[in-house]
Amino acid sequence: EAGVAQSPRYKIIEKRQSVAFWCNPISGHATLYWYQQILGQGPKLLIQFQNNGVVDDSQLPKDRFSAERLKGVDSTLKIQPAKLEDSAVYLCASTYIQGGTDTQYFGPGTRLTVL
Amino acid sequence: SQQGEEDPQALSIQEGENATMNCSYKTSINNLQWYRQNSGRGLVHLILIRSNEREKHSGRLRVTLDTSKKSSSLLITASRAADTASYFCATDSWGKLQFGAGTQVVVTP
């Protein structure tokens, strides 16, 4: 079974530029999550999708971050414009069970450096 | 804010020794999960313990949960160099995970 795929693996941009990350969850997984992990900290949930609908985006900085999950499969996370403090690893995870308790399967992450 | 707090922040042991790390949290939970993260990689799920369970085993891993004290511990027995990683506890409240800052474990041969 293929795992959660993310691209790119690394991205370096200058502040005020825009950037987009892509995630392909495990086939059949209804719930998809985006996390931000700053160096030395645990992952922080940014947004949770169930199929193509948003379940929780309370911690997403909506003035600069946006995310979508068209057709309930792949998802993209965008930052525009980027700030220095956005430097982090962005992790995508997915689960099979909708809205309940289940193991989350994580992708390898995208390491973003904002200069 | 982060729900779980791991202790210690860092742990250095030799191969064959046991490693114990603790997690404390603040609010009620459905379950608590432990994840491992190798340098530069994504997180790997290790074990899930439900709020009505007190102890769970998986291979060389032993997890305990004390809901009255809002704390959990992860024990890795007979550690190996390959166990070198960061370990995170995550509290689960209705499918929403909140992670602690992690314990960085180094196992030297």
Short summary:
With 115 residues, chain A is mainly beta. Helices cover 0% and strands 48% of the residues of chain A. Chain A contains no helices and 11 strands.
Provide structural commentary.
- The complex is a heterodimer of chains A (115) and B (109).
- With 115 residues, chain A is mainly beta.
- Helix content of chain A is 0%, strand content 48%.
- In chain A, β7 and β8 form a beta hairpin.
- In chain A, 37% of the residues are buried.
- In chain B, a hairpin with a 5-residue loop joins β4 and β5 (43-50).
- The chains are: A mainly beta (115), B mainly beta (109).
- Greatest contact between two chains: A-B, 27 and 26 residues
Secondary structure tally, helices of chain A = 0
What Rg of chain B is obtained from the alpha carbons, in whole angstroms?
Answer: 13 Å
Element-by-element helix/strand order of chain A: EEEEEEEEEEE
Tell me the number of strands of chain A. 11
Q: Which range does the strand content of chain B fall in?
A: over 45%
Total of helices of chain B: 0
Mean pLDDT of chain B: 92
- What characteristic shape of chain A results from the CA principal axes? globular
* Secondary-structure element string of chain B: EEEEEEEEEEE
What share of residues of chain A is helical? under 10%
How much of the polypeptide of chain A forms β-strand, as a percent range?
A: over 45%
| Estimated helix fraction of chain B | under 10%
Q: Count all strands of chain B and give the number.
A: 11
Instruction: Describe the sheet with the most strands of chain A.
Output: 7 strands, mixed
User: What is the arithmetic mean of pLDDT of chain A?
Assistant: 92
The class by helix and strand makeup of chain A works out as mainly beta
Please outline the major beta sheet of chain B: 6 strands, mixed
Structural class, judged by helices and strands of chain B? mainly beta
